[in-house]
Structure formats: C-alpha cells, structure tokens
C-alpha cells in the first residue's frame, strides 16, 4: 500500500491561508494536558474495577471494615484458588468460549456483507430494511423470554449451547449490521471506483479493497459482539438448565446467595471473567488504527 | 484512456463475475443481505408479534396454563394508566434517557478524540477505558452498589475525605438521589462503547483532511465542529440511536441497585414492566407497557433518522 | 466392528436398567435452590443416591440460584415445561398453586401431616388444599451485641417491646456513631416488620380473608418500629437503602449497631465478617404475644408432571424423617415435628437452638395468590413511607385499601 500518498487535499483548502495563529500553549504543556486527561479518564473507568480486585483480595473480616481502606491491609488469593481449582469453572469458561467464538464469527460474517450492501447498493427495501431490523431491538428483552422459550422448546434446542446461538444472533445482528453500514458509508467511494477500474469484480473490490479498509469498524463490531455474548446473562439463565451447559455469567450468579453473598468469590469471578476479554482487546486495539487514516486515497 | 484496461481484465473470469451483469447484478445486493434477513425474520418476528399481541389479551400465569386467554382490547392499557407508578416511571424514563444519551455521547466523543492519537502508551489507556464495558454487568452493578453503601461504601469515604459531604449518605436510599446515582453507573458502563464506535469512525477520517484543516489554522473547536464531526456523522447518528435503545432497555443497572425504589423514585418503564410481568405474573399489563415503550422508541428513532437524512439532503 | 460396539453398549445399558430397577422406574427432574447443591459433594447428592437405590427411580437434579428461580419457573411452566419436583420459597406457593401449576397432594400428605411442624406445613396450604411440603424452615430472632449492651448499662437481652426500645435508645450514641438497631429497607424491612404486626395482636390477612393492616394494633406496631428511626434515630441511615441482607448486617458487623433482626442465615455472614464479634441470639422480644415470621423452602410437584407418583416419593423422602439428618448437614432446620422436641433441639448447634425454640411462635405469611405483589408493592411502600416520616395511620389505611383491591374484595 502506498502509505505516503497524501497527494489529494480537498479542493480549495490550499488557497487563502489565513495568518497562522499558533496557539499560545507550548507543545509540552499540551501533551501534558493530553496525558492528564487520559489519566483522569483512566482512573474514572478503572477505579470500580480496581475496587473489585481489592475486594476479591481482602480477607473476609476486612470486607466490612469502616472506614473502608483504599488498599487492602491483608492479601489473600483464597477466592481465586477456590474458583480456579475444580473442574466447574473451566467447563463454564469453555462453554462461554465456544459460544462467544461462534456468535462472533457468524455475526461478523453476516453483518459485513449485509452492512456493505445496505451502505452501497440501492435496491428495493434498502431504506426500510435496516429500520425494520432495528425495530426488532426495541421490545424489552425480558418480555421475549416466554416466546423464545416456546420456540426453542418446539425446536428441541432448550438447554443447549447451539440453541442460544440464534437467540443471541437475533439481538446482536441488527446492531452489527447498523454499525457496519455506518462504517462502510464512511469509506470513500473513490477507493472502490479505483479498484473497479483496475479490473476487479464488484465482489473482489469489496473483498480485497473495502473490507481491509473497514478493519477498524470490524474490530469495533467484533468487540461488541464478543463482550455481549461473553457476559450475556438473562437468556442464558433462562434457557440453560443443566450444569454442564452453564456459561461463566451463570456460574457467577450462582455465587450470589439468597441471603448473603460471598463477595470475595463474586468479585474474583468478575475479575477472572473480564480478564480474557481485556487481553484480547489489548491485542485487537492495534487494528483500530488503520484503514483510510493511513492516507491511501487515490485521486 | 483508462477504460480499456478493465475491459481487458474482464476477460479473466472468476466466479464472482456472475454478479457483474444481468440477473446476477440485480440479485447481488439481495444475496448479501439475505443471511441477515433470514435470521432476523426467523428469530425475531414471532417473539415480537406475540409480545405485542399479549398487550391485548388477558395473559396471566393462570390463563397461560389453561390456554384460555381472552381478548380484552385496551383493558390492559387502561389498567396501566390507572396505576400511579406509571406516571412517575414515564417521567423517570425521560430523565434517565436524556441524561444517559447526552452524557454518554459527549463523554464518548471526548474520550475518542483523546484516544485517537498514536502516542506512547495509548494501547494501555484504550484498554483501560474499555474496562467498564468488559466487566460482566451483574458484577459491575453489585460493585457500584457496594461503593455507594452507606455503611462501607468507598464513594462515601472518598467524598467525606475530600470534604464534599459531611457524613456517609445513602445515595441509593434517598429518593432525591437514587435515580441519579444509578445513572452515574450506567454512564460509566455505557460510555466505552460509544467511545469505541467513534474511535473506529475517527480512524476512517482521511488524515489529509485533518492536516489540511490544521494548516488552515483552524482552532481545535472549529476543526471539531466543521471538519471532524461532519466526517463521522453517520457513525455518530448510529451511536446515538444505539445508546438510546440500550439505555431504554438497560435493566440490570436499576433492577440490581434499587429495584426501582425507594418509593418508585428510580422506577423506569422497563422495571415497571418487569414488576407487572414477573412479580404480579400479569404479562398482559407488562406487554402493554412494553408495547408503549416499543412504539415510542420506533417513532423516536424513525423521526431522528429522517431528520438526519433530511439534513444530509440539504 | 462399530456395529458390534454399538450393540454391546446398548445391551449393557439395557441390562443395567433391567437388572437394577424394579418395573416402574421413572426419571424425576428436580430443581433445587443453588445453595443446596453448591458443590459436587453437597449432602443432597448422597441423599438422592440413597433414594435412587431404595426406589429404583432416577433423579436429575438442576441447581437454580434463588434470584432466578421464580422467573425461570414462571417462564418454563408458562411454556408448558418445567421440572417434576421444584423447591419453592414458601412465599411463592400460593401464586403458582392458584394458577393451577402445582399438583394437589392433599390426599397423600394428610396421613403424614402430623410429622411436620404446623407453621411450615401451613405455608404450603392454599385454599384448604396442600400443594407443597416443607423442605427446611427458618425464622427470625434477635441478635444482640453483648459488649454494646453491657456498655449501655443493660444486663439482659430485651424480652418485651419496652425493654427492646429502651435498649435500642440506650445503645444509640450520636458522638460515638453507634445505633441501637440495624434494619432493612423496602421489602427486607417489611419482612422484618411482620413479626411485630403479629405480636401486636393484629393480622395482616386473616384466614377468612379479612385485611387487618389498618387496625389500631397494626398501626401501633409500625409506629413502634419506624419510630426507632424517625423519632429516636436509633437506626443508621443504611435502613433507607438496605434491600439485601448483607447491607442489613453491615452495621452490626461493624459494631455500629447493637441489635439485628435476622434468621439463621446471618450466623455465617457475621462470623466471616467479624470473627471477634461477641453476640448472642435470643428469641424476638414479645408484644402482646410472641411471634416470628417463618421462611424457608418447600418442595412441590408440577401439575403437568408425567411421573407424579415417583415425584411424590421423592418429596416424601426429602421432607420426611430423614430431613432432620440431611438439613443438619447444611446447618439448616428441618420442619419435621421430631426436630422441634427438646432432645432434638439440644442436639443442634448452640447458635441454632434459639430459632428452633421459638419455632412454635412462627407465623406463615398470608398464603394468598397475590402475596408477591402485596409484599413488594404494598408493604415495601408502607415501610419506605414510614421511614420517611409519612403519617403511619394514613399509610396503613391506604395499604389496607390497596390490599383489598388486589384481593378483589
């Protein structure tokens, strides 16, 4: 890819440059502000998570200490050991992994083509269809439980991981399609035209040129599906009955008791559940930076 | 001049050449959307229709079991309107939605702008700011509830230490603060998603445009308003719609923190529908509320999207 | 080769089935609340093995967390499915029975009715028919911080309302930040309030359906408890928000509150939270009469179960005489009458004894179909309004009107 090809500037921008008003702030100060802003946002976002970790490490008798201390006085990894030893947790994790991988792959694959077609092609229903899909998202999911249950029971898919896949797709897909549609509409037409001029078929232009361009969007959509499937609770808790099919969030809710909750365990479970997704995202986020931002616009 | 090249290339046929002309070209877009439609129609339509229908029938645990559900017309709606909680819940829903959407969108945009530069350590910050979204919602909500707790809550402790409040305050137990305390959690949880969407959209803004604007000496605000926002407007509109829908349907936050209480002070229509359905076992009333929510959402989003399109048309 | 394997496994399975079981072997699906089946070595598994060995039936057990049990039962049974035998919080029986979802077991249970303590048994009785049998029972008693009580200059745990009020006020010290009593808000608070309404001599909903919530006695009871917060400031502000037991327990664990009204489930939480806590458990103070509120779980049979006879055998097995032994392993109280005799009580762990001793004063909450709604909507609101200084008599009059309306009177 010719990354340095910033040849085209929108027409007229180069003309009549007003006197450059350099901002009065020196560069180091601006960078300083930038990092200060980042740190504030970081602390705001991470503090509750930190509090979960701190709670999971505290000894049980420190949980109710008043005043609560920011840093635990004593550390114990007992909750983590209790959770990770024993096969149950790993089975839940494996179930979640299988489910999340399937739903993510299917919904990204389907929404990429659908989103692209809706963004780029005019066809009968190209305006109404996306709206119609979105409407499906607007009924409170709790009230869809019983109809879903009846459907799954009729199909004999109750209490199975594959039975959850269509249910999840039903509420992931419309949003994915919408998101992808938005991203595709942002990729300049010129790119596709250029590819077509180079002799690509429509499909090839989409597959080889547009799709790589939309990578940040795909990463965003995949992240969205991944996180929501990994953490989905309501449907899973209603449609999964037997222990062997339980997913991680169901394992977590089992730690919340009728009267009292083992907060150390619950928080440890929350931390462990979040960790894989955070790790995956840490590697994925690099792909958020790419595409048109690289400047590969041909004239 | 250029026109000859593609013609030559077209001779090299691949399977996807079918879609270049004739029928193939006509059905091409339909084929691309077909899988999505099949799934949505197959899975969503029946539950949705049956959900809306329930609003007009007498659906309770008893009638469900006997299969003898009578058509009652608008009776369910009348009963909902007669419930004083409904008015409170409607007003709260409005406050809840407006606060959430406005704050999440502006914070999300701000964060996306902060995180969009390639500076050292940015991966660390990006991952960190995504944390709220990644934490399983049940655990996140319960953590916040503990942080607000009037006996052991760290929020209270910090605010007291900083001298903002005198004594520990029952944030979730005070009818004046409960809805806002829950809103803070929901903003915390929802913003990263908006951030991620806008961040991805920002990456698609051609750098040349940004640089040109900088060379023009456009100040930060003007650049944002006149150059960046128009570029990402589609994604922004979509983020707005999705945040709107997700906020209206955000159930865990309120249910697990306050159950809509105390004294309905944090009741929204969704929690009210849940109470009708799963505490009173009256699915008719619950569906009536849900149907009103549904219609409201449909009208609001359609209007909003039409407005945006009209603006684009100008 | 593959065929051979397939046939031989099938044959083996057939032989196993035929060999080990009598003619009518059924598979019973059982939903229990998660704490009873929290680990693979939970006592219930051994108990079910014994049941399977004895009867030849098989039991498929599925653990459902309390939080989701009610909703999952509702969804599954509305969808025409659900377990054969289910564990129900005793407060849910009426709603499900009224909808015709629970099997009427009156004929089978009447001959063995005297095995059970009357209070818990009555919680499974709806409109004169028995729909559920008590699996385990509990009730609320008074937890007192010995140190705080002594420091307040009181030498014995309160036994009457006057002593209770005096102790609460004496332990309250604004400067030291201590309070007399920690209490729940909303639904949890309402649950703790019921015993006091009964103690005043009032009924919430009498057996004949009379609503007694607006009687002067009931008003006095609510006035008495809420006054501890509104008038005497003897409760911490957490009462306004505490709708989980952990939040109710917190001030007691922190020794900021000297008394707590709770069931046996608090023992573990208190010992975990503050191992140095020096407290005693005593029966609730008595008003005009002694009373406490009964909780616990019942076992009921799905009305649409295809294996109702085997299901009844399972219910009888789990709630029967063996439950004394079984529940002891969980540190819970069996609802068998044999578990409440003096000898049986003496065998219980010391901290459980006060609960069993006051079991005879236990009242079941009204067994009416709309109880969930009355409890959450009406009484949750009553208690929350009372705490926020609304005039009690108006609140109670309104509540009575609402309840009559809900009951269709």
UniProtKB/TrEMBL annotation, chain B:
Topological relation to the membrane, as annotated: Multi-pass membrane protein
Keyword Ion transport: no
Broad class of where this protein is predominantly found: membrane
SUPFAM superfamilies linked: MetI-like
Keyword Transmembrane helix part of the UniProt annotation: yes
Stretches that traverse the bilayer: 27-49, 94-115, 127-147, 193-213, 234-257, 283-305
Domain called ABC transmembrane type-1: residue spans: 90-304
Assigned keywords, A-Z: Cell membrane, Membrane, Transmembrane, Transmembrane helix, Transport
InterPro entries per UniProt: MetI-like, MetI-like_sf
Subcellular location: Cell membrane
Xref: Pfam families: BPD_transp_1
Record-stated family: Belongs to the binding-protein-dependent transport system permease family.
Protein name, per record: Sugar ABC transporter permease
Organism, as annotated: Neoaquamicrobium sediminum
């Amino acid at each position: 890819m010719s990354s340095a090809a910033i040849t085209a500037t929108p027409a007229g921008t180069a003309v009549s440059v007003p006197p450059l008003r350099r901002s009065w702030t020196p560069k180091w100060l601006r960078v300083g502000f930038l990092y200060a802003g980042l740190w504030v946002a970081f602390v705001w976002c991470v503090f509750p998570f930190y509090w979960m970790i701190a709670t999971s490490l505290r000894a049980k008798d420190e949980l109710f200490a008043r005043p609560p201390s920011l840093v635990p006085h004593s550390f114990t990894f007992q909750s983590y050991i209790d959770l990770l030893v024993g096969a149950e947790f790993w089975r839940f994790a494996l179930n979640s992994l299988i489910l999340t991988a399937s739903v993510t792959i299917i919904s990204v694959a389907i929404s990429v083509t659908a989103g692209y077609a809706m963004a780029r092609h005019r066809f009968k229903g190209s305006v109404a269809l996306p709206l119609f899909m979105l409407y499906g998202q607007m009924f409170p999911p709790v009230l869809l439980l019983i109809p879903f249950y009846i459907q799954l029971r009729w199909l004999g898919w109750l209490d199975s991981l594959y039975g959850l896949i269509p249910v999840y797709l039903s509420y992931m897909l419309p949003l994915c399609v919408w998101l992808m549609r938005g991203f595709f509409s942002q990729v300049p037409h010129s790119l596709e035209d250029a590819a077509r001029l180079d002799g690509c078929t429509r499909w090839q232009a989409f597959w080889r040129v547009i799709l790589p361009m939309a990578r940040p969007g795909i990463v965003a959509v995949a992240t969205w599906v991944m996180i929501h499937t990994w953490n989905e609770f309501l449907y899973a808790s209603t449609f999964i009955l037997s222990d062997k099919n339980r997913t991680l969030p169901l394992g977590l809710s089992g730690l919340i008791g009728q009267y009292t909750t083992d907060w150390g365990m619950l928080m440890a479970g929350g931390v462990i559940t979040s960790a894989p997704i955070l790790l995956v995202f840490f590697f994925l986020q690099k792909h958020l930076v790419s595409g048109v931002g690289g400047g590969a616009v041909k004239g | 001049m250029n026109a000859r090249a593609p013609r030559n290339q077209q001779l090299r046929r691949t399977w996807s050449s079918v879609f270049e002309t004739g029928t193939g070209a006509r059905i091409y877009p339909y084929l691309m959307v077909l899988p999505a439609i099949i799934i949505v129609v197959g899975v969503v339509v029946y539950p949705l229709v049956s959900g809306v229908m329930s609003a007009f029938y007498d659906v309770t645990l008893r009638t469900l079991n006997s299969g003898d559900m009578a058509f009652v017309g608008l009776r369910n709606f009348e009963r909902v309107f007669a419930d004083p909680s409904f008015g409170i819940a409607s007003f709260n829903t409005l406050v809840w939605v407006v606060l959430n959407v406005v704050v999440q969108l502006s914070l999300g945009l701000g964060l996306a702008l902060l995180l969009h530069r390639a500076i050292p350590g940015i991966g660390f910050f990006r991952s960190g700011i995504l944390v709220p979204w990644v934490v399983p919602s049940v655990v996140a909500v319960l953590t916040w509830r503990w942080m607000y707790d009037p006996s052991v809550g760290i929020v209270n402790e910090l605010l007291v230490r900083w001298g903002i409040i005198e004594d520990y305050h029952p944030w979730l137990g005070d009818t004046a603060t409960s809805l806002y305390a829950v809103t803070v959690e929901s903003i915390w949880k929802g913003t990263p998603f908006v951030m991620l969407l806008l961040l991805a959209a920002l990456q698609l803004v051609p750098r040349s445009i940004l640089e040109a604007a900088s060379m023009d000496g456009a100040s930060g605000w003007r650049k944002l308003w006149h150059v960046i926002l128009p570029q990402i407007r589609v994604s922004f509109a979509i983020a707005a719609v999705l945040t709107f829908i997700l906020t209206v349907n955000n159930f865990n936050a309120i249910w697990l923190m306050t159950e809509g209480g105390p004294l309905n002070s944090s009741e929204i229509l969704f929690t009210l529908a849940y109470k009708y359905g799963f505490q009173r076992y009256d699915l008719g009333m619950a569906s009536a509320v849900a149907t009103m929510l549904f219609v409201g959402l449909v009208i609001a989003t359609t209007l909003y999207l039409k407005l945006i399109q009209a603006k684009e048309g100008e | 080769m593959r065929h051979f394997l397939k046939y031989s496994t099938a044959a083996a399975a057939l032989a196993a089935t035929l060999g080990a079981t009598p003619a009518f072997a059924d598979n019973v699906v059982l939903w229990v609340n998660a704490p009873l089946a929290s680990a693979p070595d939970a006592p219930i598994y051994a108990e079910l093995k014994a049941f399977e060995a004895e009867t030849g039936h098989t039991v498929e057990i599925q653990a459902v967390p309390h939080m989701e049990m009610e909703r999952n039962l509702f969804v599954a049974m509305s969808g025409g499915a659900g377990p054969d035998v289910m564990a129900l919080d005793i407060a849910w029986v009426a709603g499900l029975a009224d909808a015709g979802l629970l099997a009427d077991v009156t004929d089978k249970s009447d001959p063995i009715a005297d095995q059970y303590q009357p209070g818990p048994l009555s919680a499974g009785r709806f409109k004169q028919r028995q729909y559920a049998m008590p699996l385990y029972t509990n009730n609320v008693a008074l937890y007192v911080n010995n140190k705080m009580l002594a420091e307040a200059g009181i030498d014995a745990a309160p036994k009457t309302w006057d002593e209770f009020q005096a102790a609460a006020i004496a332990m309250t010290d604004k400067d030291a930040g201590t309070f007399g009593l920690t209490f729940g808000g909303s639904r949890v608070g309402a649950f703790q309030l019921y015993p006091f309404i009964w103690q005043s001599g009032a009924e919430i909903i009498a057996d004949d359906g009379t609503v007694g919530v607006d009687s002067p006695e009931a008003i006095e009871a609510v006035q008495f408890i809420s006054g501890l917060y509104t008038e005497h400031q003897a409760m911490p502000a957490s009462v306004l928000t505490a709708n989980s037991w952990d939040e109710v327990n917190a001030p007691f664990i922190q020794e900021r509150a000297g008394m707590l009204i709770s069931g046996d489930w608090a023992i573990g939480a208190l010992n975990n939270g503050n191992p140095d806590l020096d407290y005693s458990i005593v029966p609730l103070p008595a008003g005009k009469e002694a009373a406490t509120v009964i909780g616990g779980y019942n076992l009921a049979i799905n009305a649409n179960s295809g294996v109702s006879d085997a299901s009844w055998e399972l219910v009888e097995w789990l709630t029967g005489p063996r439950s004394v032994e079984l529940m002891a392993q969980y540190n819970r109280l069996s609802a068998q009458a044999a578990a409440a005799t003096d000898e049986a009580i003496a065998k219980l762990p010391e901290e459980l004894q006060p609960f069993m001793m006051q079991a005879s004063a236990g009242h079941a909450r009204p067994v009416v179909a709309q109880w969930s709604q009355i409890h959450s909507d009406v009484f949750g609101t009553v208690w929350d309004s009372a705490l926020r200084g609304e005039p009690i008599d108006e609140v109670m009059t309104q509540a009575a009107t609402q309840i009559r309306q809900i009951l269709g009177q």
